Amino acid sequence: MNKKILVAGATGNLGERIVKALIKRGAEVRILNRKETDPAKTKKLTELGAEVIAVNMSDTQGLKLACQGVSCVVSALAGLHDVIVDSQTLLLDAAIAAGIPRFIPSDFASDFTKIPEGENRNFDLRKEFHKYLDKSPIAATSILNGAFTDILSYKTPLYNPNDCSVAYWGDNPDWKIDFSTMDNTADYTAAAALDSATPKILRIASFQISPNELIAIGEEVKKTSFNLVPMGSLEEFSASNKRERAAHPEGEKEMYPNWQVNQYLYSMFSVQNQPLDNNRYPDVQWTSAIEVISKI
Ligand SMILES: NC(=O)c1ccc[n+]([C@@H]2O[C@H](COP(=O)([O-])OP(=O)(O)OC[C@H]3O[C@@H](n4cnc5c(N)ncnc54)[C@H](OP(=O)(O)O)[C@@H]3O)[C@@H](O)[C@H]2O)c1
């Protein structure tokens, strides 16, 4: 079996972890980066054995050559329309032109397929790219990992160890939120990239935890009592996010303006990964909630 995988966005937080996981799994890794990428960022990846190809992202011939001979293209690019729609479309076209059978787009999110347009700007960019991807003659697989566990340390009201509080939106403090560590997501993505028969969507979570369970773990870890804070209905949250977005158009040029972070929180209380595909690769060692929360 051809175990050569191309990773775009390999100098990023998730991308680098995917490269390391692929190498650990015995893959040959080629990374694709922009000509302007700082060479210091790729140095450690070449030291691990990855082959580096630097191209201009608008150079269709260069992109096609970079794709040649791999069995799967993995995108871990991050950005707005110019990246998630424009650059990924060029990368996808190059993969198709080079005859590559499989493509993993940079989705790595909650299940945006179940969230209506207008509720989450960054998910709408993925939906726009998928309209093109779904019509293309390539087997694509989305890895939907819920929220990265990092958000638990971002000082959002969801988990606030300073105030000893946990907030929730909607009417159910037992609603289970999907969380995955970047390392688990990267390892699973590496396994999926090397698996020639993946379905269109793989849903995963290192753990699924409710606000009430977050309180129990917070209390265990911090040895003090926590408060549960109801933040109002999801309808009110959605409306307030839309107002905030309209009031702060400068955020349209940023990846994570405040209103986008709130749109992610809204999504976390709106969709759930069911059923999970965690067991597809039994060697992935899932991190538990207590392991993550005890480090915050
Ligand atoms: N579910 C969640 O909670 C969650 C949270 C965070 C991220 N994510 C998702 O995870 C994925 C990876 O995110 P990340 O945080 O690892 O991103 P990151 O650290 O910002 O890395 C982004 C990568 O994309 C490359 N890139 C950026 N702009 C580009 C462009 N115009 N053309 C080509 N390459 C470009 C960067 O290359 P350079 O090194 O050249 O800049 C870098 O390799 C994204 O899909 C992101 O939305 C999900």
Descriptive terms for the model:
17% strand; alpha/beta; six-stranded parallel beta sheet; three-stranded mixed beta sheet; Rossmann fold; binds NADP nicotinamide-adenine-dinucleotide phosphate; 10 helices; 296 residues; 2 domains; globular
The radius of gyration is 20 Å
Q: Which hetero compounds are present in the coordinates?
A: NADP nicotinamide-adenine-dinucleotide phosphate
Low-confidence stretches: none
CATH architecture of the largest domain: 3-Layer(aba) Sandwich
How do the helices and strands follow one another from N- to C-terminus?
EHEHEHEHEHEEEEEEHEEHEHHH
Tell me the domain tally. Answer: 2
Number of strands: 14
Number of helices: 10
Strand order of the largest sheet: 3-2-1-4-5-6
CATH fold category name of the largest domain: Rossmann fold
Terminal CA distance:
42 Å
Write down the overall geometry. Answer: globular
Structural class: alpha/beta
